[in-house]
Amino acid sequence: MSIEVTVITNGSSLGEDLLRIAWNTAQRLFREYGVEVYVVPFQVRKGRVAIIINGLEFPVTRPLSVEELSNLILTAASSEGKWENDVVLGASLTDDGPLGNGVAITI
User: Fold this and answer.
1) How far apart, in whole angstroms, are the C-alpha atoms of residue 101 and residue 96?
2) SS3 83
């Protein structure tokens, strides 16, 4: 089983810590369970710190432990495919669009 984990960082200490913890977690999951976890760092100028596990996004607002991230990765990976027939609609608000000081809603 292989799992792709994208770590979205914004240059904050929370994002950098999450990336470091994700790499440590990936090594631990491989050693203990033989699960291949591919950590992909993604830097954004503005935005929130988040982790995307096989296409499922989880916003991160506090530091996670290796145990918490391990559980999150394994839970998300075991739930893969359960949402195939569902439609998910998301929106992101940005203020650096063609509207000047206005807010653009991207759907």
Assistant:
1) 7
2) coil
Kindly state the tokens that stand for 100: 């000047």
Measured from the Cβ of residue 65, the count of other Cβ atoms closer than 10 Å reads 10
* Residue carrying structure tokens 């369970």: 33
- Which two structure tokens, joined as six digits, stand for 27? 């090594």
What distance in Å separates the CA atoms of residue 19 and residue 81, rounded to the nearest whole number?
26
The distance between the two most distant Cα atoms of the chain, rounded to a whole number of Å, is: 51
Ordered by where they begin, the domains of the chain are 2-106 (3.40.30.10)
pLDDT tens for the chain, residues 1 to 107: 789 999 999 989 999 999 999 999 999 999 999 999 999 999 998 889 999 988 888 899 999 999 999 998 888 877 655 445 444 444 444 445 554 444 444 44
Task: Give alpha helix (H) positions in 1-105.
Answer: 13-33, 66-78
